[in-house]
Design goal:
Number of strands: 7
CATH architecture: 3-Layer(aba) Sandwich
Largest sheet: 7 strands, parallel
CATH topology: Rossmann fold
Number of domains: 1
Length: 242
């Protein structure tokens, strides 16, 4: 269980849901996991669980929509933990709202949380990846990143953007041995989805660990030939409002 021993893996939104499950899985394979979010209690809880099970982890409070916060945090990571080998851009948020009811502020927030934060984190991590001539970036999109649907235009626009971002960087960084891929989860039973749709039957939905296993597989040597790809992980669940 040491496939990622010595690697530093940053997981944005790593304190709960898919991010937390991914953090656990990376730590089990020997990575030192760095969890970034603005929910300090979730950070601390996840770090405690990883350390209590013998893994290595550290959490940082970070506003993932703020350029200054992200740049300062990545500088601290490099000084206190080491150069980032793996970046999991997982943090994101969703609103379910008709287009004409979606305010400009809500639209901008969706783009900031789901795309701009991903851009800023990647921008902070890539320079040293290029110097090392290696690196792994996994961006979390969604089933809504490859299709359309009602009442979530801001979110769908952002998640389509994640895929374009992934494909662009996958090709641009290919010569530097930096692999960039995206994972598109279908319905997953997370706290975010429970808050958004508490009444929906989630019996057939995936669980965070199901997506975490796919993410971690993309970080392993066996996936070294995979870059600029979009991995669909839909399962059998039916998305809300479809």
């Amino acid at each position: 269980m040491s496939a990622l021993l010595g690697k530093v893996a940053v997981v944005t939104g790593g304190g709960r849901g898919i991010g937390q499950a991914t953090s656990f899985s990376l730590a089990k394979l020997g990575a030192t996991v760095v969890i970034l979010s603005n929910e300090q209690a979730e950070n601390e809880n996840t770090v405690y669980q990883i350390q209590n099970s013998g893994g290595k982890a550290k959490g940082y409070f970070c506003d993932l929509a703020s350029r200054n916060s992200i740049e300062q945090t990545f500088n601290r990571i490099e000084e206190e933990v080491g150069i980032v080998d793996i970046l999991i851009n997982n943090a994101g948020s969703m609103i379910i709202k008709p287009f004409l009811d979606t305010t400009v502020e809500e639209w901008d927030t969706m783009q900031a949380l789901n795309v701009r934060g991903m851009y800023l984190a990647t921008r902070a991590a890539v320079p040293n990846m290029k110097l090392q001539n290696k690196g792994i970036i996994i961006n979390i999109s969604s089933i809504w990143g490859i299709k359309g649907g009602p009442d979530r235009s801001a979110y769908i626009t952002a998640k389509h953007g994640v895929i374009g971002f992934t494909k662009a960087l996958g090709e641009e960084f290919r010569p530097y041995n930096i692999r960039v891929n995206a994972v598109c989860p279908g319905p997953v039973a997370t706290k975010m989805m429970e808050d958004l749709a508490p009444e929906v039957n989630k019996d057939d939905w995936l669980h965070p660990v199901d997506i975490a296993e796919i993410i971690v597989d993309l970080c392993l040597e066996k996936s070294k030939s995979v870059t600029a790809e979009v991995i669909e992980a839909f399962g059998n669940g039916r998305p809300v409002n479809t």
